[in-house]
Amino acid sequence: MFLESRTDAGGALLIARGAWCASAAPELARAIAAAPLAGPRVTLDAQSLAALDLTGAYFLGELERRVRAAGTGLEWRGARPELLEFTTTLAAPPAEARRAHSPVEPLGQLGRWTVERGSAVHDVLEFLGRIQFVLGSALLRPQRLRIQSIVRHVYETGIQAIPIVALIAFLISVIVAYIGAEELRQFGGEVYVVDLVTISVLRELGVLLTAIIVAGRSGSAFTAEIGVMRLNEEIDALRAIGINVVEVLVLPRLLGLIIALPLLTVIADAMGLAGGAVLSWLALGIPFTQFLARMQEAIATTTFWAGLLKAPVFAFVIAMIGTLRGLQVRESSRELGRLTTTAVVQSIFMVLFVDAVFAVVYWEADF
Amino acid sequence: MAAGTPIVRVRGVANRFGAQQVHEDLDMEVRRGEIFGIVGGSGSGKSVLLRTILGLQRPTAGTVEIEGRDLTRLWGAELRAVKRSYGVTFQSGALFSALTVAENVELPIREAHALPAAMLAGLAALKIGLVGLPADAGGKYPAQLSGGMVKRAALARALALDPALLFLDEPTSGLDPIAASAFDELLLYLQRTLKLTVIMVTHDLDSIYRTCNRVGVIVDRHMVSDTLEGIVANPHPWIQEYFHGARGRAARRA
What is the pLDDT of residues A110-123, one digit of tens each? Predict the structure, then answer.
């Protein structure tokens, strides 16, 4: 019982009792919400309070505001508590700033979106330019290539990804071979499973799966590493020392991934073919020697290279998006999470988009 | 200075990390209503001591009592209740960067009590005004604030649940002398008005002379605590160097 109320003809008498403290906040909120504010006049009495802290004083003030808002007269029996006087001397609560809804708001949003997109394109182009410039000058003076750093990134993005890439390539090709075998059996053409597996793995699946795994593993790591460095002001520190950020942070990751991704693709190709061969042998009874012979017939000399050629391009796209998003992190940890997500989604999308472009180019060039 | 029952009592605390003994049989007592400064060289274990008192880290030996409850023997809900009874500000502010200042202040209240949104906002606005921040600071994110404003916002969050006990870790570090002295005045004002007990770790000699009633110095893994006058007169060489070095003399004259 924090607020005792007595009502008579003259109005309500509200007596605050007990400890009006932060620990009782919900009870105080309920008590003032239930307080009767009727009558010509409300009298408040705080003389029997056992304790009052700032939270309690806020609720007393809130009670006063409610009485006034109800258009009822207000008076204090005994002194108005000192702490309540104190809270009213503090700055008034800020008015909630709400953006006005106007009919042209959608137009404004479209405008803002357009400007943002424009500056995003500008950022990407500028970043590409800086990479090219730094890459050019580093190639002229190879001691600026930071070989140690590149090697570390080859290890982290390449060597450490081997188990997961190998496993996924093996499983996907088993699935493709299995579904292919089911369908082709209807035409008595089980042996064409070999063609299906080898061509799809070498041209598309091997490199595409590898790129998507790497985008999820390393693209996100690039954004997170560089983003945390930004939040820690490490990027500013590098700049202040006079070190080119693109040269030390972006280029080693970019070159490391351009080396690692084609190598991972070769492993994915090999494991994919192995998966196809294992399934052909177990499910269709095609021995390994026959699988190999059929494979030689199925593929052209360009099939393997058609897939592998895409790997460095995918690597460039993934590393560029990952590092750029990392450098864009500002201010908060939430920003870091948001940009890491953006980096992964965008690099997977761009990998698929570039793959589609490759498909058209190969088609036209009859490669 | 009234000698009352101690609000914080640390007895025989030892902290050891591997072979490194940070504290050994350390005693400390803070009385209700005083501002107690913790001083010590870099690496003397000021932060470790603070973390021990806050119950964030269990000491290797000894007891830590806050209002008579021994933190080192509490777990779960009981420990949480003790933690709700004090407020802390951390050295770099430790404001949650994804939340606005007002949301930062509301967070402890929201965690402790179910309150209507308007009342949460009102309480937060009160605390933001209390620490001398302008009303529009509530809607800003920590990254948009200056160093001094971050310290004040952190103080507002520490005071969210109206604790009687306040811990401050280097509250004036990184502030310019004017902002630091304004923070000292704010602290004294709040301490008088809200009858707070304040324990602060600091290196700022000006701040110690201005605000502290008593000072505890961590030397040789123990704590020597006394009134400010008593500490300044202490013959220990490190304490002499600290308070009577070039910086100490300048601060004393001020």
Answer: 999 999 999 989 99
- Mutation choice for B interface testing from A66, A82, A90, A334 by most B CBs within 10 A: A90
Domains of chain B: 1-85+163-254 (3.40.50.300), 90-161 (no CATH)
| pTM for this prediction | 0.69
| Cβ-nearest to B139 among A55, A97, A332 | A97
Q: What's the number of domains chain A is made of?
A: 2
A83 shares its domain with A211: no
Instruction: Indicate whether A96 belongs to any domain.
Output: no
Averaged pLDDT of chain A: 88
Residues A197 and A317 in one domain: yes
Say what the pLDDT of residue B1 is.
39
Burial of A51 (0-12, 13-18, 19+ CB in 10 A): exposed
- Structure confidence by residue, pLDDT tens digits, B95-113: 888 788 999 999 888 888 8
Give domain status of residue A114, yes or no.
no
pLDDT confidence of residue A267: 96
In a 10 Å sphere around its CB, with 0-12 CB exposed, 13-18 middle and 19+ buried, how is residue B72 labelled?
A: middle
End-to-end, the C-alpha distance of chain A in Å comes to: 86
Q: Do A333 and B98 touch (CB under 8 A)?
A: yes
Q: Verify whether the Cβ–Cβ distance B142 to A53 is below 8 Å.
A: no
Task: For chain B, report the end-to-end CA distance as a whole number of angstroms.
Answer: 22
CA pseudo-torsion sign A242, A243, A244, A245? negative
Residue in A29, A97, A330 nearest the CB of B116: A29
What 8-state DSSP symbol labels residue A1?
-
User: Beta strand pairing status for A18-20 and B35-40?
Assistant: unpaired
- Distance between CA atoms of residues A209 and A132, nearest Å: 28
Contact criterion met (CB < 8 Å) for A93 and B139: no
Q: Is the ipTM of this complex over 0.85?
A: no
**Which residues in chain B land under pLDDT 50?**
1-3
| CB A139, CB A180: distance < 8 Å | no
A229 in a structural domain = yes
Whether A177 and A281 share a structural domain? yes
